[in-house]
From TrEMBL:
Source organism per UniProt: Rodentolepis nana (Dwarf tapeworm)
MF term (GO), any: mismatched DNA binding
GO cellular component terms attached to this protein's record: nucleus
DNA mismatch repair protein MutS core domain sequence ranges: 185-352
Domain of life: Eukaryota
GO-annotated biological processes: chiasma assembly; mismatch repair
Coiled-coil regions, chain positions: none
Any Pfam family hit: MutS_III
Alphabetized SUPFAM superfamilies for the sequence: DNA repair protein MutS, domain III
InterPro entries linked to this entry: DNA_mismatch_repair_MutS_core (IPR007696), DNA_mismatch_repair_MutS_sf (IPR036187), MutS (IPR045076)
Stated name of the protein: MUTSd domain-containing protein
Length: 377
């Protein structure tokens, strides 16, 4: 198995040191490609615990479809055999390799899957989700799971992108477009998320002329001197928008830090500012038209802000470096907090009482409390 850094072109052997290296960017995407007999299967990871699999598809001699997916996803690393990484041509894999990849897929535990008595039922449920007759996709997904297992990255979902709407870009044009990766060229966005989005747009050109004209009108509107203050306001608000997808993924696994909650609250406030600023200007986008029974985006954001503000004690969360629910929000939690606060005083008085009962030469006493919780009948 080999690794290819798809963003820099760096190629190296597969090592445990590379597998155990901590991510500098939570948005790094790892892709596995398996080609055999003119059929290709692709799987790639997502930082929020989602394993995306592209069902088997035919590719031409120029590998247009394969390169299109690589350019759209822009993976940080590509996994494959030496032959696949070198030329993306056919290669022969043994039946045992396929079985081992299939076994890795059987061992996946999805959070929304029902509870099964034995492993056979769980494996049958996993296979019912996967598309039929896609052995190359299964080989690619198995190789990727083997790599992710060394990085302790959970898999929590199975979306299946399809290959279609391919825009064939000639090689010399693709090489010219790669120049835009440099920060000295067009990609000078105010936020990291914006830079990544613009980089994706440059690698995968849009064919929707109506959408392109809409973006051009928005840029022309913000470029006018009369709208300079509006432009500065949008830039300031955009800089405070964080990666909500990553934060929600950490919240789902109960690993969110106080800073993640701060990013969530700050992002919601920034989105509220952006919506309120853009709403009076149709040049910046058509106002959202929602049915009466459905909340508008402004109402949803306001509701989320109120919910976060009334649930989380942000000052205590920042001071204690852990998640703290606001006092008065939940009676059961308030009762246990009161008991917890009184516990040191109760134990100190109990230790002093025990010390008085001991012999005179004992001048100190420590008390250890082991809670005894009886099972409910």
């Amino acid at each position: 198995m080999s690794l290819l850094n798809a963003q820099s072109g760096f190629h190296s052997n597969f090592t445990n040191e590379e597998c155990s290296r901590d991510d500098e960017e939570a948005e790094e995407v790892y892709m596995a490609i398996n080609c055999y007999g003119g059929v290709c299967g692709i799987a790639f990871s997502s930082p929020n615990g989602i394993l995306k699999c592209v069902p088997d598809f035919q590719f031409n001699q120029e590998f247009t479809e394969v390169f299109t997916i690589i350019l759209e996803v822009n993976p940080y690393l590509i996994l494959g055999t030496e032959y696949t990484i070198g030329s993306l041509k056919d290669f022969t894999s043994t039946h045992g390799y396929y079985d081992s990849c299939l076994q890795r897929l059987h061992l996946i535990k999805l959070p929304y899957a029902p509870t099964f008595v034995d492993e056979g039922e769980s494996a049958a449920y996993i296979m019912s989700i996967l598309p039929k007759d896609s052995p190359q996709m299964i080989r690619a997904a198995g190789a990727l799971l083997d790599y992710l297992a060394k990085r302790t990255s959970p898999v929590e979902n199975f979306p299946f992108p399809s290959v279609g709407n391919v825009l064939d870009v000639q090689l010399y044009l693709r090489q010219e477009l790669s120049n835009f990766k440099s920060p000295d060229y067009l990609n000078t966005c105010s936020s990291n998320l914006g830079s990544r989005l613009l980089s994706k747009w440059l690698r995968f050109p849009l064919q929707d002329m109506e959408e392109l004209h809409r973006r051009q009108h928005a840029i022309e509107f913000l470029s006018k001197s009369a709208n300079r203050s509006l432009h500065k306001t949008l830039i300031s608000s955009t800089k405070r928008v964080g990666n909500i997808q990553r934060v929600l993924g950490k919240m789902h696994t109960s690993s969110a830090s106080p800073n993640d909650w701060k990013i969530l609250l700050q992002t919601l406030q920034s989105l509220k500012e952006i919506l309120s600023v853009c709403y009076p200007h149709p040049e910046l986008g058509t106002p959202f038209e929602t049915p009466e029974s459905v909340q508008s985006p402004q109402q949803v954001i306001n509701s989320l802000l109120d919910k976060v503000a009334e649930t989380i004690d942000m000052s205590s969360t920042s001071n204690h470096k852990r998640f703290i629910v606001r006092q008065g929000h939940h009676a059961w939690l308030d009762e246990w907090k009161q008991i917890y606060r009184c516990l040191p005083d109760i134990l100190s008085r109990l230790a002093e009482h025990e010390l008085n009962r001991l012999r005179g030469h004992v001048d100190a006493c420590g008390l250890i409390y082991f809670p005894l919780v009886s099972s409910s009948s």
